[in-house]
Amino acid sequence: MTRIDRIFTDRIDDRESKTVCAIGLDVGGTKIAGGLVARATGEVLLRRVIPTAPERGGQAVLDDCLALAGGLLADGAAQGYAVQGIGVGVAELVDLDGNVTSAHTIDWRGVPVQAAFARLAPALVESDARAPALAEGMYGAGRPYRIFCYVTVGTGISSCLVQDGRPYAGARGNALVLATMPLSTICTVCGAELHPVLEEFASGPALVARYNRQGGQAVERGEAVLAAAAGDAVAVEIVGSAGDALGSSVAFLVNVLDPEAMIVGGGLGMAGGLYWERFVASTRQHIYAENSRGLPILHASLGVDAGLVGAAAAIFQRIETI
Q1: Given pLDDT bands bounded at 50, 70 and 90, which one contains residue 320?
Q2: CATH class in words for 3-129+305-321
Q3: HSE-CB for 86 with a 13 A CA cutoff
Q4: pLDDT tens across 47-73, in order?
Q5: Which fold, 143-301?
Q6: Model's pTM, two decimal places?
Q7: What are the structural domain ranges in the chain?
């Protein structure tokens, strides 16, 4: 048994006669959402949201996260809750030991983040792709399925396979990259060498960039482009083509992994409308096996709370395995 497992074991006895919960933090590029999450139901008992401002540097963001977690610990104690630990989901690559191994948004690479939180309570750091997938498996739309894929579509696009309630992390924690690698190819018409990247075409910031280059009044959020698709021909083309491209990539996951269902979250993934319709149609069109084309393609049921619920759920799952 590892040291961290012994710490978790010491907390198990706290479950007697109290509401058992854990702190979940969802650390993204725009905001940090934190909350106390009930183990029995996944309900967010208390919620706090603060801006991230990652341009200040990784240490400033970490200090804010620690202060947020400390405040939630105090709130939990005041309410008489048994707080089992702190789960932290971060928008970066995270290895199997909870080390942040990339610095695309939050510069925590090489920083002992998990150890910093462990000074407050037992702590786990997880990727923000796997955390909501775990939440949907424990409390949400993934509960009926033994094998499903979770895809999140928002500021970025990522994926996670969940099997028997466990998100698959891979050998190094990197089994989540769906949309950031280029698909290098040669145009069969003009011979140009192309390097399209899905995330630069179909994510929220990509919709904004494409629309602002081609549209009229500038917008700041992908949701505004989706709304404009109700009557703006430029927006219709951009949103529809983005949905088509996303569907082609998600169908690739279906063809390789053969899940029972696809569950889609994130701001754009939950939006519905033309983007969703074209995405679903494209996914089914590009699935190779006839008996896979009808698989359920579902919205995530936990909405914007999936990340923080999943971060807390990582604590619950660790306790269950001890």
Answers
A1: confident
A2: alpha beta
A3: 29
A4: 999 999 999 999 999 999 999 999 999
A5: Nucleotidyltransferase; domain 5 (3.30.420)
A6: 0.89
A7: 3-129+305-321, 143-301
